[in-house]
TrEMBL record, chain A:
<dbReference type="InterPro" id="IPR017941">
    <property type="entry name" value="Rieske_2Fe-2S"/>
</dbReference>
<keyword id="KW-0249">Electron transport</keyword>
<keyword id="KW-0812">Transmembrane</keyword>
<dbReference type="Pfam" id="PF00355">
    <property type="entry name" value="Rieske"/>
</dbReference>
<dbReference type="InterPro" id="IPR019470">
    <property type="entry name" value="Ubiq_cytC_Rdtase_Fe-S_su_TAT"/>
</dbReference>
<dbReference type="GO" id="GO:0046872">
    <property type="term" value="F:metal ion binding"/>
</dbReference>
<keyword id="KW-0813">Transport</keyword>
<keyword id="KW-1003">Cell membrane</keyword>
<comment type="similarity">
    <text>Belongs to the Rieske iron-sulfur protein family.</text>
</comment>
<keyword id="KW-0001">2Fe-2S</keyword>
<keyword id="KW-0472">Membrane</keyword>
<dbReference type="InterPro" id="IPR005805">
    <property type="entry name" value="Rieske_Fe-S_prot_C"/>
</dbReference>
<keyword id="KW-1015">Disulfide bond</keyword>
<dbReference type="GO" id="GO:0008121">
    <property type="term" value="F:quinol-cytochrome-c reductase activity"/>
</dbReference>
<comment type="function">
    <text>Component of the ubiquinol-cytochrome c reductase complex (complex III or cytochrome b-c1 complex), which is a respiratory chain that generates an electrochemical potential coupled to ATP synthesis.</text>
</comment>
<dbReference type="GO" id="GO:0005886">
    <property type="term" value="C:plasma membrane"/>
</dbReference>
<dbReference type="GO" id="GO:0051537">
    <property type="term" value="F:2 iron, 2 sulfur cluster binding"/>
</dbReference>
């Protein structure tokens, strides 16, 4: 505390100015501390403002879907919905499996085998998102009679990406294979996606 | 600001004197767009388009605020509420058609405004800040227009949102998370629709704010002019009011005439019929196209088809954003001291080639992605970047420009003499 003997704190003496003023002065500490405190506070307030834009609880609650496979014949595919995105569930024929297996990994843009994209013992069940990895259109090929492109898998009408029978990207602008979501077989005829 | 001979605001009426002493708002208006702002005497009709852009923004804000009274930003009812506006709300069809076509009018006017700046060198010193703020306004306009197009929640709305937010998923590592954050979900849905509506309402007012800065920055050096030479004295200028208020008023009449033709006789000409189909997340339209004013940029996006170090998709997105960001650097890419293309024979040719190039890009962007159009898109996209990064910098170094007139007045009088001769007898007006 300042006393009569030491009325001005060290480094705050107004004269002679240049000689004794220490840099930073005590009041600079106070100013920097106060502004930094407010700055950190403003930064923390920004967090909820940013976080509110993330998917809300009800959106996340839709994050798993069960699919019944009994009605899907070999060669057939269905379109269903997972997290409000289209989900393709396809029962591959032996010919389509053979076609996918015959492709050497070296020609693939996003190298993956059909085994890696399906579950053990269920190699004929190809389950992918129906979202083109280019810009998110729904590729054709899952619906009845839709064009499946030159590689027999899926074909995106927006910018012409062509997928093979393992839904791997073969031609066109898309960078990745159709995404295989997390899923598990609950029984031989039922899968839980998500 | 402005020139020393600018007239001062002198209110006659005691009420206006009382106001002026306490809040000099009338003085500000008088100095900005009244008799107190001296403007080069030789502006041609291409200088109308700044005011027209302001008028278009005003139309959008007024019609938009009214439409928001009837629209519901909820995925379940958004499409129906737009049809409710079209069929049930009194005069609702007029308001919505005016708003939808008003966006097109805003963009056409702004594109002409930008090309006028390119032709007459309005981006050059001392007006770089005016140009930079203009590019900011353009970016804000594009964001606003995109989010507005999503609101009717038709097929093109939905898939446009899907494709455009998909740009962000091209960013390595964090891209997909950014996309989910922007949408508030894994695909466009209620959360996205609501935030787009909120921002679509907000951004026009941000644009209005940046326009004020744009005009403020313009009024420091004053307007450029078709000769591109500096104002030398009072004889080179006329007061904004009544000379250019009258000229702009006439242009405004023509603008609203064309606007009315669109709204009343061809309200859906520039729209896409697929947007009258309600949004369906499980079915993509056969041919996704953005609104016409995004076609050139869409063509640039699509012109990358092969991976080269980075994925093709990322290249496309970078190039598309780069094609606009490159405009920020134009004042430093073009170092020629001569502003107006009237006195720059080589630049003038490059300018018109660029105009044709952008029109071709637009044509490609609006067409289906067949191999023929893909090649044309790649050539025109490459030329677009070459224009700004190679052609303009080279021209600005090696071009032999024509002699400039000594003053605006000299150029104006020479034109009216009928021989187009200036004092040194060399410069002939280009037209």
């Amino acid at each position: 505390m300042a006393t009569v003997d030491n009325a001005v704190p060290p480094g705050e003496s107004p004269e002679p100015f240049e000689d004794t003023v220490e840099d930073p002065r005590r009041r600079d500490y106070l100013a920097i501390g106060a502004v930094a405190f407010a700055g950190v506070g403003a930064g923390v307030i920004a967090l909820p403002l940013i976080n509110q834009m993330n998917p809300s609880a009800d959106v996340l609650a839709l994050s798993s879907t069960e699919v019944d496979l009994t009605s899907i014949q070999p060669g057939q595919a269905i379109k269903t919905s997972f997290r409000k995105q289209p989900l393709f569930v396809r029962n591959l024929t032996q010919k389509e499996i053979a076609e996918a297996d015959a492709v050497p990994l070296s020609v693939l843009r996003d190298p993956q085998t059909l085994e890696e994209r399906t579950k053990p013992g269920h190699k004929n069940w190809l389950i992918t998102l129906g979202v083109c990895t280019h810009l998110g259109c729904v590729p054709l090929g899952a619906g009845e009679g839709e064009y499946r492109g030159p590689y027999g898998g899926y074909f995106c009408p927006c910018h012409g990406s062509e997928y093979d029978t393992a839904a791997r990207i073969r031609q066109g602008p898309a960078p990745k294979n159709l995404f295989v979501p997390e899923y598990a077989f609950l029984s031989d005829t039922k899968v839980k996606v998500g | 600001m402005s020139f020393p001979w600018a007239k001062q605001y002198e209110p006659k009426h005691p009420v206006m004197q009382w106001v002026d002493n306490r809040l000099p708002l009338p003085r500000l208006v008088y100095g900005a767009i009244g008799g107190g702002y001296p403007v080069p005497r030789n502006l041609n009709y291409w200088w109308n388009f700044g005011v027209l852009a302001g008028a278009a923004l005003a139309v959008q804000i007024i019609t938009g605020v009214v439409l928001a009274m009837h629209y519901a930003a909820n995925g379940a009812v958004a499409f129906d509420s737009v049809e409710h506006i079209m069929r049930d709300v009194n005069g609702g069809w007029f308001l919505r058609y005016a708003h939808a076509n008003g966006a097109s009018m805003f963009f056409i006017v702004v594109y002409i405004h930008i090309f006028r700046g390119l032709y007459y060198g309005s981006y050059k010193p001392p007006r770089e800040m005016v140009w930079l703020l203009g590019v900011v306004i353009f970016l804000l306009m594009m964001a606003t227009a995109f989010m507005g197009y999503v609101l009717p929640w038709g097929q093109m709305s939905f898939w446009g949102a899907q494709v455009i937010t998909g740009f962000f998923s091209a960013i390595p590592l964090v891209g997909e998370n950014i996309r989910i954050w922007l949408l508030g979900g894994y695909a466009p849905d209620n959360a996205a629709l609501n935030r787009f509506f909120s921002l679509h309402y907000l951004l026009p007012f941000v644009i209005a704010g940046v326009i004020i800065l744009h005009i403020w920055a313009l009024h420091i050096p004053g307007s450029n002019n078709p000769e591109g030479v500096d104002v030398k004295g009072e004889q080179d200028t006329v007061p904004f009011h009544p000379y250019y208020t009258a000229k702009d008023g006439w242009g405004m009449g023509v603008f609203f005439l064309i606007f009315a033709l669109l709204v009343f006789f061809a309200p859906n000409m520039l729209g896409h019929p697929d947007n009258y189909i309600p949004a369906n997340p499980l079915s993509t339209p056969a041919h996704i196209v953005p609104e016409w004013y995004f076609w050139p940029f869409y063509a640039i996006l699509r012109s990358f088809t092969a991976d080269f170090i980075l994925p093709a998709k990322l290249w496309g997105v970078l190039a598309m954003f780069g094609s606009i960001l490159i405009l920020f650097f134009l004042p430093w890419l073009d170092r020629s001291p001569v502003r107006s293309a009237k006195y720059r024979p080589a630049y003038r040719i490059a300018f018109w080639v660029l105009v044709v190039d952008v029109l071709l890009l637009g044509y490609v962007g609006g067409s289906e992605a067949t191999p023929k159009f893909l090649i044309l898109g790649q050539i025109t996209a490459a030329y677009y970047f070459a224009h700004f990064l190679i052609i303009v910098p080279i021209i600005s170094r090696i071009e032999k420009t024509r002699p400039l007139p000594n003053s605006i007045t000299e150029a104006v009088l020479a034109k009216h003499d009928g021989h187009g001769a200036t004092r040194d007898g060399a410069a002939v007006p280009a037209e």
